[in-house]
Amino acid sequence: MKRNEKIMVVANKLKGMIDKYKNPIHTSKQPVSYQFRGVNKNKFVTSICTSKHPLKNSSKKTKLFYFLALEHFVNSCASDVKYTKARLLQYRNLFVYDETLTTQIGNNIEKTIKAVVDDFLQPWKRQQCFLLFCDIALIIMEKAQIKKAFVMITNYISKRKKKYLNELFEIFYNDNKIPLAFLRISNFIIQFRKNISFVIQQEMRILITATMSAGKSTLINAIVGKPITKTAQEACTNNLCYIYNKPFEDNNIHLLASLVSFSATYDELIAKEKETICNVASFFRTFYKTQARVCLIDTPGVNSAINRDHGKLARKAIIEENYDKLIYILNAHSLGTDDEIKHLKYVYKNVPHNKIIFVINKLDSFRKSDDSVSESIKLVKTDLQKIGYKNPVICPFSAYFSFLLKMKQNNEELDSDEQDVFDLYIKKFNKPEYDLSKYYDKPVGEPFHNGDELMKMSFISGLYCLENILYGEAMK
């Protein structure tokens, strides 16, 4: 290569590096697979509701035999050992109480399986084979592996029952009316269909960022409708956490960190803060009815004085993560601080502006004599325009009131302090000056909530309008 050509090559590389620095491009790469540590994401976000399982109140022997048959077929056919082990634990806790018996009876698995699926002498159990196949399908979720289980089961049943089992397999994957023959297991068929239709959706990813004490954790709890993240006046989120919606409520929260659990407790969720990366899945309770597949990406506060790495991690996520929207939370009581302006400028330079939603939180603590909601919103808009945002989407919001509204909506009991705050908010937000819905582009009128107090408050608090902005596009 000639000297002039070498100079041109070096110059072009240098120009590319400078352009990249001036105009950072938000990557569209999917998150790397290690975030799931060997667990299939589509399975991790599925729901299984066993609270009304037909065998729940059966004899101990019936439940024990059933679980052993289920365990055998699932372990023989499933391709995801870590996931399968955690799912089977749910069923073990539902059906089995004596592990010694499990070992003893499990030594003769052929006899156990026949006792579950072969109803020649016990015709009242004829649906048990189909129920077992539903549970297998709900756990495994992959069509090829479910088909494998089907073939295995047919070795134990009559030709007539094989015909019905094949019909059941086909019903899983269509929207036809469920025949009367499968009426007793229709709930499980519906669950499977909902899971399938949910996981084939494109996932909407929403990254959430803020400076400390803006109310990020409270906002996440409000969006989910459950206490998923710890709220306190301290650095709570130490690492990235991915919070996924599930297709329907099964009253279980999934946690994947160093271990995987499909019925995680609140203490386990809080302990996840010590993990490098964790994944949580729960059904999102919404006032804006949606079946959208959503992932919230929770990032650390960018201005932690205790741990400077928090800011680095949050800024890295803003550049490298793949997301459709970014929620930037502003604390209504500390607008315009140096840390805030610095982070706003960083987001301005690194995120396409049409992806950003600015949420002004903690307006619920304003006092009429000292603070003005409308003036605070104008101040935020002015500051954003000075930075360069031309038409920023600004959403005034009460995260804590919204969280309490969802707790009430789902008949969750509030403690005495929460109830006192809730009553105070009801009184406050019934005043015209605290109606946050009027600051949104398309507020919904009075007739829509039709006298429902909780629905009315969801509009006034900004909750319904924010959910409309987040999920409305996913429903088009």
Q: Tell me the CATH superfamily of the largest domain.
A: P-loop containing nucleotide triphosphate hydrolases
> How many strands?
9
CATH architecture of the largest domain: 3-Layer(aba) Sandwich
> Over the alpha carbons, how many angstroms does the gyration radius reach?
26 Å
Summary of the model, kept short:
Helix content is 48%, strand content 10%. It is an alpha/beta fold and 476 residues long.
What does this structure look like?
This protein has 476 residues and is α/β, with parallel strands linked by helices. The protein folds into two domains: 42-199, no CATH class; 204-475, P-loop containing nucleotide triphosphate hydrolases (Rossmann fold), CATH 3.40.50.300. It contains 20 helices and nine strands. Strands 4-3-5-2-6-1-7-8-9 form a nine-stranded mixed sheet, with helices on both faces. A hairpin with a 3-residue loop joins strand 3 (254-256) and strand 4 (260-261). Helix 3 (60-77) crosses helix 8 (143-153) and helix 11 (216-224) packs parallel to helix 16. The longest helix has 20 residues, at 3-22.
